[in-house]
Design brief:
37% of the residues lie in helices and 21% in strands. The protein is of the alpha+beta class. The protein has four domains: 3-77, Uridine Diphospho-n-acetylenolpyruvylglucosamine Reductase, domain 2 (2-Layer Sandwich), CATH 3.30.43.10; 84-198, Uridine Diphospho-n-acetylenolpyruvylglucosamine Reductase, domain 3, CATH 3.30.465; 202-318, 2-Layer Sandwich (Alpha-Beta Plaits), CATH 3.30.70; 334-446, Alpha-Beta Plaits (2-Layer Sandwich). The strands form four sheets. Strands 15-12-14-13-17-18-16 form a seven-stranded antiparallel β-sheet, sandwiched between helices. It has a five-stranded antiparallel β-sheet with strand order 5-6-10-8-9. The protein has a four-stranded mixed β-sheet with strand order 1-2-4-3, with helices on one face. It binds flavin-adenine dinucleotide (FAD).
Amino acid sequence: MGEAFTHIVRGDVMERIYFQDESKYRGSADALFIPETKEELIAYVKEKSIQKEAITIQGALTGITGSGVPVKGLALKTEKLNRIYIQEDEKGWYAYAEAGVTGEKLEQMASRETKDACFFPVLPTEKTATLGGIAASGAKGIHTRCYGGFKDYVEQCQVCTAKGDIIEVTWDMPEFGEIFGSEGMLVLFLSFKIRLIKKPQHIWGILFRFTDDRTAVRFAERIEERQHITAVEYMDKHTIRLIETYKKNMSAISSLPDIGEQIQVLIYVETAGESEEEAEEEAAGLLEACIEAGGDPEDAWAMCTEEEVERLRAYRHAASECVNMEVGKVNGQYPEVCKLSLDTTRSLTDRETLLDEYQSRLDKSNIPHCIFGHFGEGGPYVNLMAKDSAQYKEGTRIMEEWVHKAYEDSAEVFGEHGVGKLKKEMFQRNAPEVIVKEAVRRKQKWDPEGILNPGNMV
Ligand SMILES: Cc1cc2nc3c(=O)[nH]c(=O)nc-3n(C[C@H](O)[C@H](O)[C@H](O)COP(=O)(O)OP(=O)(O)OC[C@H]3O[C@@H](n4cnc5c(N)ncnc54)[C@H](O)[C@@H]3O)c2cc1C
Protein backbone atom coordinates (compact mmCIF):
# COMPACT_ATOMS: atom_id res chain seq x y z
CA MET A 1 0.00 0.00 0.00
CA GLY A 2 1.05 3.58 -0.57
CA GLU A 3 2.01 5.77 2.34
CA ALA A 4 -0.54 8.08 3.88
CA PHE A 5 0.35 10.82 6.32
CA THR A 6 -2.60 12.38 8.03
CA HIS A 7 -2.88 15.60 9.93
CA ILE A 8 0.59 16.97 9.40
CA VAL A 9 0.66 19.58 12.13
CA ARG A 10 1.42 23.26 11.53
CA GLY A 11 5.11 24.04 11.82
CA ASP A 12 6.04 20.34 11.58
CA VAL A 13 9.09 19.64 9.40
CA MET A 14 6.82 17.51 7.17
CA GLU A 15 4.79 20.60 6.41
CA ARG A 16 7.88 22.38 5.06
CA ILE A 17 8.78 19.35 2.94
CA TYR A 18 5.39 18.59 1.46
CA PHE A 19 3.38 21.78 1.67
CA GLN A 20 5.84 24.29 0.24
CA ASP A 21 7.43 24.45 -3.19
CA GLU A 22 10.53 26.27 -4.44
CA SER A 23 8.63 29.56 -4.57
CA LYS A 24 8.47 29.16 -0.76
CA TYR A 25 4.70 29.56 -0.89
CA ARG A 26 3.28 27.65 2.08
CA GLY A 27 0.04 25.71 2.38
CA SER A 28 -1.55 22.92 4.36
CA ALA A 29 -3.69 19.83 3.84
CA ASP A 30 -5.60 17.35 5.96
CA ALA A 31 -3.58 14.42 4.67
CA LEU A 32 -0.88 13.47 2.22
CA PHE A 33 -1.07 10.28 0.16
CA ILE A 34 1.90 8.79 -1.70
CA PRO A 35 0.63 5.94 -3.89
CA GLU A 36 3.00 3.18 -4.94
CA THR A 37 1.05 2.10 -7.99
CA LYS A 38 -1.21 3.62 -10.58
CA GLU A 39 -4.05 1.37 -9.40
CA GLU A 40 -3.76 2.71 -5.85
CA LEU A 41 -3.78 6.25 -7.13
CA ILE A 42 -6.89 5.71 -9.26
CA ALA A 43 -8.78 4.02 -6.43
CA TYR A 44 -7.89 6.93 -4.13
CA VAL A 45 -9.03 9.60 -6.60
CA LYS A 46 -12.30 7.69 -7.23
CA GLU A 47 -13.05 7.44 -3.52
CA LYS A 48 -12.17 11.06 -2.70
CA SER A 49 -14.05 12.35 -5.72
CA ILE A 50 -17.25 10.67 -4.52
CA GLN A 51 -16.67 12.27 -1.12
CA LYS A 52 -16.06 15.61 -2.92
CA GLU A 53 -12.67 16.02 -1.26
CA ALA A 54 -10.21 18.38 -2.96
CA ILE A 55 -6.91 16.86 -4.11
CA THR A 56 -3.72 18.78 -4.90
CA ILE A 57 -1.32 16.87 -7.14
CA GLN A 58 2.38 17.10 -6.42
CA GLY A 59 5.42 16.10 -8.45
CA ALA A 60 8.82 17.01 -6.99
CA LEU A 61 7.62 20.42 -5.72
CA THR A 62 10.31 22.28 -7.63
CA GLY A 63 7.61 24.55 -9.08
CA ILE A 64 7.91 28.28 -8.47
CA THR A 65 4.30 29.47 -8.39
CA GLY A 66 2.85 27.47 -5.49
CA SER A 67 0.79 25.42 -7.96
CA GLY A 68 1.58 22.08 -6.28
CA VAL A 69 1.07 23.44 -2.77
CA PRO A 70 -2.25 22.39 -1.21
CA VAL A 71 -4.50 25.00 0.38
CA LYS A 72 -7.24 22.62 1.50
CA GLY A 73 -8.32 18.98 1.35
CA LEU A 74 -5.73 16.37 0.45
CA ALA A 75 -2.34 16.22 -1.22
CA LEU A 76 -1.25 13.40 -3.52
CA LYS A 77 2.42 13.02 -4.38
CA THR A 78 3.51 11.02 -7.42
CA GLU A 79 7.14 10.36 -6.42
CA LYS A 80 6.74 6.56 -6.28
CA LEU A 81 5.18 6.30 -9.72
CA ASN A 82 8.64 6.21 -11.20
CA ARG A 83 8.77 3.23 -13.53
CA ILE A 84 10.38 3.73 -16.90
CA TYR A 85 11.60 1.66 -19.81
CA ILE A 86 13.12 2.55 -23.15
CA GLN A 87 12.25 0.67 -26.32
CA GLU A 88 12.98 0.87 -30.03
CA ASP A 89 10.35 0.22 -32.68
CA GLU A 90 10.23 0.76 -36.44
CA LYS A 91 9.81 4.55 -35.94
CA GLY A 92 12.64 5.03 -33.47
CA TRP A 93 13.41 5.07 -29.75
CA TYR A 94 10.74 5.81 -27.15
CA ALA A 95 10.63 6.23 -23.39
CA TYR A 96 7.57 4.83 -21.60
CA ALA A 97 7.55 6.63 -18.29
CA GLU A 98 5.25 7.12 -15.32
CA ALA A 99 4.52 10.67 -14.23
CA GLY A 100 6.77 10.59 -11.16
CA VAL A 101 9.91 9.83 -13.20
CA THR A 102 12.34 12.72 -12.91
CA GLY A 103 13.99 14.47 -15.85
CA GLU A 104 17.32 13.22 -14.58
CA LYS A 105 16.18 9.60 -14.63
CA LEU A 106 14.77 9.96 -18.14
CA GLU A 107 18.07 11.44 -19.27
CA GLN A 108 20.12 8.64 -17.70
CA MET A 109 17.90 5.84 -18.97
CA ALA A 110 17.78 7.24 -22.51
CA SER A 111 21.55 7.49 -22.58
CA ARG A 112 22.10 4.00 -21.15
CA GLU A 113 19.52 2.10 -23.19
CA THR A 114 20.26 3.74 -26.55
CA LYS A 115 24.02 3.56 -25.92
CA ASP A 116 24.17 7.34 -26.05
CA ALA A 117 22.68 7.46 -29.56
CA CYS A 118 19.45 9.22 -28.51
CA PHE A 119 18.36 11.75 -25.91
CA PHE A 120 15.43 13.79 -24.70
CA PRO A 121 16.26 17.40 -25.56
CA VAL A 122 13.88 19.66 -23.65
CA LEU A 123 14.13 19.24 -19.89
CA PRO A 124 13.88 22.33 -17.67
CA THR A 125 17.16 23.16 -15.99
CA GLU A 126 15.92 21.61 -12.71
CA LYS A 127 16.38 17.92 -13.42
CA THR A 128 14.72 16.67 -10.25
CA ALA A 129 11.39 17.91 -11.66
CA THR A 130 9.00 15.09 -12.58
CA LEU A 131 7.59 14.50 -16.03
CA GLY A 132 4.07 15.04 -14.65
CA GLY A 133 5.13 18.39 -13.20
CA ILE A 134 6.84 19.41 -16.44
CA ALA A 135 3.76 18.49 -18.48
CA ALA A 136 1.39 20.27 -16.11
CA SER A 137 3.37 23.48 -15.72
CA GLY A 138 4.45 23.79 -19.37
CA ALA A 139 8.04 24.11 -18.19
CA LYS A 140 10.71 25.03 -20.70
CA GLY A 141 14.44 24.50 -20.76
CA ILE A 142 17.47 26.19 -22.23
CA HIS A 143 17.08 24.14 -25.43
CA THR A 144 13.39 24.90 -26.02
CA ARG A 145 14.24 27.60 -28.59
CA CYS A 146 15.79 24.94 -30.78
CA TYR A 147 13.94 21.74 -29.95
CA GLY A 148 10.46 22.89 -28.89
CA GLY A 149 8.53 21.99 -25.75
CA PHE A 150 7.88 18.83 -23.73
CA LYS A 151 4.54 18.12 -25.36
CA ASP A 152 6.12 18.13 -28.83
CA TYR A 153 7.77 14.83 -27.88
CA VAL A 154 4.79 13.15 -26.23
CA GLU A 155 2.96 10.86 -28.63
CA GLN A 156 0.50 9.57 -26.10
CA CYS A 157 -0.28 9.92 -22.45
CA GLN A 158 -2.55 8.27 -19.95
CA VAL A 159 -4.46 10.54 -17.59
CA CYS A 160 -6.78 10.11 -14.63
CA THR A 161 -9.78 12.45 -14.54
CA ALA A 162 -11.17 14.13 -11.43
CA LYS A 163 -13.67 11.25 -11.18
CA GLY A 164 -10.96 8.60 -11.33
CA ASP A 165 -11.62 7.55 -14.94
CA ILE A 166 -8.67 6.67 -17.17
CA ILE A 167 -8.26 8.23 -20.60
CA GLU A 168 -5.62 7.64 -23.25
CA VAL A 169 -4.87 10.92 -25.03
CA THR A 170 -2.85 10.97 -28.24
CA TRP A 171 -1.12 14.01 -29.73
CA ASP A 172 -3.71 14.37 -32.51
CA MET A 173 -6.75 14.61 -30.20
CA PRO A 174 -8.17 18.09 -29.36
CA GLU A 175 -7.90 17.28 -25.63
CA PHE A 176 -4.12 17.03 -25.94
CA GLY A 177 -3.62 20.79 -26.24
CA GLU A 178 -5.95 21.50 -23.33
CA ILE A 179 -4.33 19.32 -20.71
CA PHE A 180 -0.67 20.29 -21.16
CA GLY A 181 0.20 23.37 -19.12
CA SER A 182 -3.08 23.11 -17.20
CA GLU A 183 -1.36 23.18 -13.77
CA GLY A 184 -3.00 19.97 -12.57
CA MET A 185 -6.45 21.58 -12.61
CA LEU A 186 -7.93 19.36 -15.33
CA VAL A 187 -6.38 15.89 -15.11
CA LEU A 188 -3.74 13.91 -13.33
CA PHE A 189 -1.02 12.66 -15.70
CA LEU A 190 -0.23 8.99 -15.11
CA SER A 191 2.25 8.09 -17.84
CA PHE A 192 3.75 9.19 -21.15
CA LYS A 193 5.08 7.71 -24.37
CA ILE A 194 7.95 10.04 -25.24
CA ARG A 195 9.87 10.20 -28.51
CA LEU A 196 13.64 10.36 -28.16
CA ILE A 197 15.77 11.94 -30.85
CA LYS A 198 19.24 11.42 -32.25
CA LYS A 199 21.88 12.96 -30.05
CA PRO A 200 24.20 15.44 -31.76
CA GLN A 201 27.70 14.04 -31.75
CA HIS A 202 29.56 17.29 -31.05
CA ILE A 203 28.35 19.88 -28.58
CA TRP A 204 30.15 23.06 -27.63
CA GLY A 205 29.29 25.26 -24.68
CA ILE A 206 30.75 28.77 -24.78
CA LEU A 207 30.45 31.31 -22.01
CA PHE A 208 30.93 34.78 -23.49
CA ARG A 209 31.94 37.38 -20.91
CA PHE A 210 31.15 41.03 -21.57
CA THR A 211 32.04 44.22 -19.78
CA ASP A 212 28.84 46.03 -20.85
CA ASP A 213 25.22 45.20 -21.52
CA ARG A 214 24.86 46.79 -24.94
CA THR A 215 27.67 44.78 -26.52
CA ALA A 216 26.32 41.58 -24.97
CA VAL A 217 22.80 42.19 -26.29
CA ARG A 218 24.13 43.13 -29.72
CA PHE A 219 26.10 39.88 -29.78
CA ALA A 220 23.15 37.75 -28.66
CA GLU A 221 20.87 39.30 -31.28
CA ARG A 222 23.48 38.77 -33.96
CA ILE A 223 23.83 35.05 -33.31
CA GLU A 224 20.18 34.20 -32.57
CA GLU A 225 19.32 32.91 -36.02
CA ARG A 226 22.45 30.83 -36.58
CA GLN A 227 21.65 27.31 -37.65
CA HIS A 228 23.56 25.21 -35.13
CA ILE A 229 22.76 27.20 -32.00
CA THR A 230 20.72 25.24 -29.46
CA ALA A 231 20.79 27.63 -26.48
CA VAL A 232 21.37 31.33 -25.80
CA GLU A 233 21.16 32.29 -22.13
CA TYR A 234 21.62 35.72 -20.58
CA MET A 235 22.92 36.50 -17.05
CA ASP A 236 23.18 40.07 -15.76
CA LYS A 237 25.72 41.51 -13.33
CA HIS A 238 23.55 40.85 -10.26
CA THR A 239 23.16 37.22 -11.26
CA ILE A 240 26.92 36.86 -11.72
CA ARG A 241 27.73 38.44 -8.34
CA LEU A 242 25.13 36.27 -6.60
CA ILE A 243 26.43 33.03 -8.12
CA GLU A 244 30.01 34.00 -7.35
CA THR A 245 29.16 34.38 -3.65
CA TYR A 246 27.67 30.88 -3.51
CA LYS A 247 30.03 29.21 -5.99
CA LYS A 248 32.65 27.76 -3.67
CA ASN A 249 29.97 25.74 -1.90
CA MET A 250 28.37 24.43 -5.09
CA SER A 251 30.26 21.30 -6.11
CA ALA A 252 29.04 21.35 -9.73
CA ILE A 253 30.66 24.72 -10.43
CA SER A 254 33.23 25.32 -7.69
CA SER A 255 36.12 24.37 -9.99
CA LEU A 256 35.27 27.09 -12.54
CA PRO A 257 37.58 30.12 -12.37
CA ASP A 258 36.30 33.46 -11.08
CA ILE A 259 34.21 35.30 -13.65
CA GLY A 260 36.11 38.53 -12.98
CA GLU A 261 35.10 41.79 -11.32
CA GLN A 262 35.00 43.72 -14.60
CA ILE A 263 32.49 41.35 -16.22
CA GLN A 264 28.92 42.72 -16.29
CA VAL A 265 27.06 40.23 -18.49
CA LEU A 266 27.39 36.59 -19.48
CA ILE A 267 25.91 35.07 -22.59
CA TYR A 268 25.99 31.27 -22.55
CA VAL A 269 25.73 29.72 -26.00
CA GLU A 270 25.48 26.08 -27.01
CA THR A 271 26.01 24.68 -30.46
CA ALA A 272 25.46 21.20 -31.83
CA GLY A 273 27.00 19.62 -34.90
CA GLU A 274 27.25 16.24 -36.54
CA SER A 275 30.99 16.41 -37.19
CA GLU A 276 33.90 17.89 -35.32
CA GLU A 277 34.60 20.24 -38.24
CA GLU A 278 31.01 21.49 -38.27
CA ALA A 279 31.08 22.19 -34.52
CA GLU A 280 34.48 23.88 -34.68
CA GLU A 281 33.39 26.00 -37.63
CA GLU A 282 30.32 27.14 -35.71
CA ALA A 283 32.40 27.96 -32.63
CA ALA A 284 34.77 29.99 -34.81
CA GLY A 285 31.77 31.82 -36.33
CA LEU A 286 30.57 32.74 -32.86
CA LEU A 287 33.94 34.14 -31.87
CA GLU A 288 33.87 36.19 -35.07
CA ALA A 289 30.38 37.48 -34.20
CA CYS A 290 31.68 38.46 -30.78
CA ILE A 291 34.37 40.63 -32.39
CA GLU A 292 31.81 42.17 -34.77
CA ALA A 293 29.59 43.08 -31.83
CA GLY A 294 32.52 44.83 -30.14
CA GLY A 295 33.34 42.10 -27.61
CA ASP A 296 36.62 40.35 -26.89
CA PRO A 297 36.69 36.65 -27.86
CA GLU A 298 39.65 36.21 -25.49
CA ASP A 299 37.12 36.65 -22.70
CA ALA A 300 35.10 33.62 -23.84
CA TRP A 301 35.38 30.20 -22.19
CA ALA A 302 34.80 27.49 -24.76
CA MET A 303 34.21 23.89 -23.66
CA CYS A 304 33.66 20.84 -25.81
CA THR A 305 33.66 17.73 -23.62
CA GLU A 306 30.33 16.59 -22.21
CA GLU A 307 31.58 17.02 -18.66
CA GLU A 308 32.80 20.57 -19.27
CA VAL A 309 29.60 21.59 -21.06
CA GLU A 310 27.63 20.19 -18.11
CA ARG A 311 29.63 22.46 -15.81
CA LEU A 312 28.69 25.55 -17.81
CA ARG A 313 25.04 24.46 -17.82
CA ALA A 314 25.34 24.04 -14.07
CA TYR A 315 26.58 27.63 -13.82
CA ARG A 316 23.43 28.86 -15.56
CA HIS A 317 21.31 26.56 -13.39
CA ALA A 318 22.99 28.00 -10.30
CA ALA A 319 21.33 31.34 -11.11
CA SER A 320 17.89 29.90 -10.28
CA GLU A 321 19.21 27.93 -7.32
CA CYS A 322 20.91 30.96 -5.74
CA VAL A 323 17.81 33.14 -6.13
CA ASN A 324 15.72 30.41 -4.49
CA MET A 325 18.19 30.18 -1.61
CA GLU A 326 18.09 33.93 -1.08
CA VAL A 327 14.28 33.93 -1.06
CA GLY A 328 14.34 30.96 1.33
CA LYS A 329 16.44 32.91 3.85
CA VAL A 330 13.97 35.80 3.94
CA ASN A 331 10.94 33.49 3.94
CA GLY A 332 12.16 31.99 7.22
CA GLN A 333 11.62 35.38 8.85
CA TYR A 334 8.76 36.70 6.69
CA PRO A 335 6.61 33.72 5.62
CA GLU A 336 4.61 35.88 3.20
CA VAL A 337 7.73 36.69 1.16
CA CYS A 338 7.95 34.27 -1.78
CA LYS A 339 9.79 34.12 -5.06
CA LEU A 340 8.73 36.77 -7.54
CA SER A 341 9.76 35.90 -11.07
CA LEU A 342 8.46 37.38 -14.26
CA ASP A 343 8.25 34.92 -17.16
CA THR A 344 6.70 37.05 -19.84
CA THR A 345 7.76 37.68 -23.39
CA ARG A 346 7.43 41.16 -24.90
CA SER A 347 7.29 40.69 -28.63
CA LEU A 348 6.75 44.37 -29.48
CA THR A 349 9.62 45.71 -27.41
CA ASP A 350 13.21 45.12 -28.48
CA ARG A 351 15.49 43.36 -26.03
CA GLU A 352 17.75 46.32 -25.29
CA THR A 353 14.81 48.62 -24.50
CA LEU A 354 13.22 45.92 -22.39
CA LEU A 355 16.35 45.32 -20.34
CA ASP A 356 16.77 49.09 -19.86
CA GLU A 357 13.16 49.29 -18.70
CA TYR A 358 13.63 46.45 -16.21
CA GLN A 359 16.95 47.78 -14.90
CA SER A 360 15.94 51.40 -14.45
CA ARG A 361 12.66 50.50 -12.71
CA LEU A 362 14.39 48.08 -10.36
CA ASP A 363 17.35 50.34 -9.64
CA LYS A 364 14.83 52.92 -8.36
CA SER A 365 13.16 50.37 -6.10
CA ASN A 366 16.19 49.05 -4.18
CA ILE A 367 14.76 45.53 -4.33
CA PRO A 368 17.61 43.04 -4.85
CA HIS A 369 17.11 41.41 -8.23
CA CYS A 370 18.64 39.25 -10.92
CA ILE A 371 17.83 39.15 -14.61
CA PHE A 372 18.64 35.95 -16.44
CA GLY A 373 17.22 33.29 -18.70
CA HIS A 374 16.56 32.33 -22.28
CA PHE A 375 17.43 35.02 -24.76
CA GLY A 376 15.81 33.45 -27.79
CA GLU A 377 12.48 32.61 -26.18
CA GLY A 378 11.37 36.13 -25.38
CA GLY A 379 13.25 36.32 -22.09
CA PRO A 380 15.33 37.03 -20.15
CA TYR A 381 13.25 37.01 -17.02
CA VAL A 382 13.31 39.18 -13.92
CA ASN A 383 13.68 37.63 -10.46
CA LEU A 384 13.09 39.70 -7.34
CA MET A 385 14.45 38.83 -3.90
CA ALA A 386 12.52 41.08 -1.53
CA LYS A 387 14.19 41.57 1.84
CA ASP A 388 10.97 42.10 3.80
CA SER A 389 7.19 42.35 3.48
CA ALA A 390 7.20 45.97 2.32
CA GLN A 391 9.64 45.21 -0.51
CA TYR A 392 7.61 42.14 -1.41
CA LYS A 393 4.47 44.24 -1.79
CA GLU A 394 6.33 46.78 -3.89
CA GLY A 395 7.88 44.02 -6.01
CA THR A 396 4.45 42.50 -6.62
CA ARG A 397 3.19 45.88 -7.83
CA ILE A 398 6.14 46.26 -10.21
CA MET A 399 5.64 42.74 -11.56
CA GLU A 400 1.98 43.48 -12.14
CA GLU A 401 2.81 46.61 -14.15
CA TRP A 402 4.97 44.49 -16.44
CA VAL A 403 2.42 41.72 -16.69
CA HIS A 404 -0.13 44.33 -17.75
CA LYS A 405 2.21 45.73 -20.41
CA ALA A 406 2.98 42.24 -21.67
CA TYR A 407 -0.73 41.49 -22.13
CA GLU A 408 -1.05 44.81 -23.98
CA ASP A 409 1.79 43.61 -26.23
CA SER A 410 -0.27 40.43 -26.90
CA ALA A 411 2.75 38.59 -25.55
CA GLU A 412 2.94 35.19 -23.92
CA VAL A 413 2.54 35.77 -20.20
CA PHE A 414 3.31 33.21 -17.46
CA GLY A 415 4.42 31.01 -20.36
CA GLU A 416 7.13 29.07 -18.58
CA HIS A 417 6.44 28.84 -14.86
CA GLY A 418 2.66 29.15 -14.93
CA VAL A 419 0.21 31.09 -12.77
CA GLY A 420 -0.35 28.79 -9.80
CA LYS A 421 -1.45 30.45 -6.60
CA LEU A 422 1.17 33.16 -6.39
CA LYS A 423 0.19 34.90 -9.62
CA LYS A 424 -3.50 34.03 -9.66
CA GLU A 425 -4.72 37.51 -8.79
CA MET A 426 -2.28 39.11 -11.21
CA PHE A 427 -3.58 36.78 -13.92
CA GLN A 428 -7.23 37.44 -13.19
CA ARG A 429 -6.80 41.22 -12.99
CA ASN A 430 -4.73 41.61 -16.15
CA ALA A 431 -5.39 38.80 -18.60
CA PRO A 432 -7.85 39.60 -21.39
CA GLU A 433 -11.34 38.35 -20.59
CA VAL A 434 -11.21 35.80 -23.37
CA ILE A 435 -8.18 34.07 -21.80
CA VAL A 436 -9.70 33.94 -18.31
CA LYS A 437 -13.03 32.70 -19.70
CA GLU A 438 -11.28 29.92 -21.61
CA ALA A 439 -9.48 28.79 -18.44
CA VAL A 440 -12.82 28.71 -16.59
CA ARG A 441 -14.51 26.85 -19.47
CA ARG A 442 -11.84 24.14 -19.44
CA LYS A 443 -12.07 23.76 -15.68
CA GLN A 444 -15.84 23.35 -15.88
CA LYS A 445 -15.54 20.87 -18.72
CA TRP A 446 -12.97 18.60 -17.04
CA ASP A 447 -13.58 19.09 -13.34
CA PRO A 448 -16.94 20.77 -12.63
CA GLU A 449 -16.86 19.72 -8.95
CA GLY A 450 -13.51 21.48 -8.42
CA ILE A 451 -11.74 18.39 -7.07
CA LEU A 452 -8.29 18.88 -8.63
CA ASN A 453 -5.83 21.54 -7.51
CA PRO A 454 -8.15 24.12 -5.95
CA GLY A 455 -6.68 27.61 -5.79
CA ASN A 456 -4.69 27.50 -9.02
CA MET A 457 -5.31 30.09 -11.73
CA VAL A 458 -9.15 30.29 -11.71
C1 LIG B 1 16.60 25.59 -9.46
C2 LIG B 1 15.36 25.55 -10.32
C3 LIG B 1 15.47 25.79 -11.69
C4 LIG B 1 14.33 25.76 -12.49
N1 LIG B 1 14.48 25.98 -13.82
C5 LIG B 1 13.38 25.97 -14.61
C6 LIG B 1 13.51 26.21 -16.00
O1 LIG B 1 14.58 26.39 -16.54
N2 LIG B 1 12.36 26.23 -16.73
C7 LIG B 1 11.14 26.02 -16.17
O2 LIG B 1 10.14 26.05 -16.88
N3 LIG B 1 11.00 25.78 -14.86
C8 LIG B 1 12.08 25.75 -14.07
N4 LIG B 1 11.93 25.51 -12.73
C9 LIG B 1 10.59 25.27 -12.18
C10 LIG B 1 10.20 23.78 -12.05
O3 LIG B 1 11.31 22.95 -12.06
C11 LIG B 1 9.24 23.36 -13.13
O4 LIG B 1 8.05 24.11 -13.03
C12 LIG B 1 8.86 21.87 -13.07
O5 LIG B 1 8.12 21.55 -14.20
C13 LIG B 1 8.05 21.46 -11.86
O6 LIG B 1 8.02 20.04 -11.78
P1 LIG B 1 7.70 19.31 -10.39
O7 LIG B 1 7.71 17.85 -10.61
O8 LIG B 1 8.59 19.80 -9.34
O9 LIG B 1 6.21 19.80 -10.16
P2 LIG B 1 5.51 20.41 -8.86
O10 LIG B 1 6.21 21.63 -8.44
O11 LIG B 1 5.35 19.36 -7.85
O12 LIG B 1 4.10 20.78 -9.49
C14 LIG B 1 4.00 21.75 -10.50
C15 LIG B 1 2.58 21.68 -11.08
O13 LIG B 1 2.40 20.45 -11.76
C16 LIG B 1 1.27 19.76 -11.22
N5 LIG B 1 1.56 18.33 -11.32
C17 LIG B 1 2.64 17.66 -10.85
N6 LIG B 1 2.56 16.37 -11.20
C18 LIG B 1 1.41 16.22 -11.90
C19 LIG B 1 0.76 15.12 -12.52
N7 LIG B 1 1.27 13.89 -12.51
N8 LIG B 1 -0.42 15.35 -13.15
C20 LIG B 1 -0.98 16.58 -13.19
N9 LIG B 1 -0.42 17.65 -12.60
C21 LIG B 1 0.77 17.47 -11.97
C22 LIG B 1 1.13 20.27 -9.81
O14 LIG B 1 -0.19 20.12 -9.33
C23 LIG B 1 1.48 21.72 -10.02
O15 LIG B 1 0.39 22.41 -10.53
C24 LIG B 1 13.06 25.51 -11.91
C25 LIG B 1 12.96 25.26 -10.54
C26 LIG B 1 14.09 25.27 -9.76
C27 LIG B 1 13.95 24.97 -8.30
